[in-house]
């Protein structure tokens, strides 16, 4: 029943956010996770070991460029990418990332308006307090099909 409550809360939060943002707000992105990029072995090997290889459509191209440019200090960790792999990732993410939005180059999927809309505060607070989940970037803790790009399974 906790899940049903969470879903009801999510629906309510969506309605409230929808009104607050108005037409053309965050909901314009609501189907972005339906868009699947072809899998890229270099991307999965370089960006899918510490966390899920996030779908390119989850962030604008400008964000992916900023993440790659900042690879020397990626959320506190240095990432080392060979020039060949870097070129491959730049091309893949520029092709399949979202068009640049009005928000510049946000670095976090979990702070995107659509993400906050789908995961309201009560759900996020509960997840952060649960040691088996810990962080919202731990998509697979709640979405069993996350690695396959399935997010509507629960
Ligand atoms: C050595 C481990 C490691 C590798 C490899 C790695 N990351 Fe990360 N990444 C992290 C950590 C740690 C965080 C912060 C997680 C958090 O705060 O929840 C993070 C966060 C992120 C986030 C934001 C997640 C959110 O909260 O929305 C994105 C996007 C991201 N990484 C993309 C990439 C990309 C692109 C690559 C490949 C170029 C990559 N990562 C490779 C460790 C890694
Ligand atoms: C604490 C559990 C939890 C975590 C962690 C989590 N989600 Fe969710 N997510 C949910 C719930 C609950 C819903 C709303 C019910 C549903 O639609 O499945 C949801 C909905 C979604 C949806 C909308 C699905 C649809 O078709 O309506 C997407 C996309 C999504 N999450 C992606 C992600 C991504 C990407 C991550 C990691 C960056 C993530 N989620 C992390 C619980 C979580």
Helix and strand topology:
Elements: H1 2-21, H2 41-47, H3 61-69, H4 83-96, H5 113-118, H6 121-129
The chain binds heme C (2 copies).
One heme C is lined by residues 46-47, 49-51, 54, 67, 74-75, 77, 79, 89, 108-110, 135, 137.
Describe this structure in words.
The protein has 154 residues and is an all-alpha fold. It has one domain. Helices cover 42% and strands 0% of the residues. The protein has 6 helices and no strands. The protein is globular, with a radius of gyration of 16 Å. The two termini are 13 Å apart. The site of one heme C has 17 residues, from helix 2.
Number of domain modules: 1
Instruction: Summarize the helix and strand pattern as letters.
Output: HHHHHH
> How far apart, in Å, are the first and last alpha carbons?
13 Å
The helicity comes to 40-55%
The main pleated sheet reads as: none
**Beta strand count:** 0
Radius of gyration: 16 Å
Q: What general form does the structure show?
A: globular
Q: How would you classify the helix and strand content by structural class?
A: mainly alpha
What hetero molecules are in the model? heme C
Number of helices: 6
Low-confidence stretches are 1-28
**Rounded average pLDDT:** 81
**Strand residue percentage:** under 5%
């Amino acid at each position: 029943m906790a899940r049903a409550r969470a879903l009801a809360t999510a629906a309510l939060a969506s309605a409230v956010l929808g009104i607050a943002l108005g037409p053309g707000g965050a909901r314009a992105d609501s189907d972005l996770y339906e868009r699947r990029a072809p899998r890229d072995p270099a991307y999965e090997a370089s960006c899918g070991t510490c966390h899920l290889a996030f779908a390119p459509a989850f962030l604008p191209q400008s964000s992916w460029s900023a993440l790659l440019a900042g690879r020397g200090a990626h959320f506190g960790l240095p990432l080392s990418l060979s020039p060949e792999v870097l070129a491959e990732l730049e091309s893949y993410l520029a092709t399949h990332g979202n068009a640049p939005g009005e928000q510049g180059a946000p670095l976090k999927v979990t702070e995107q308006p659509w993400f906050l809309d789908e995961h309201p505060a009560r759900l996020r607070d509960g997840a952060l307090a649960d040691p088996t989940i810990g962080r919202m970037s731990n998509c697979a803790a709640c979405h069993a099909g996350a690695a396959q790009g399935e997010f509507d399974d629960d």
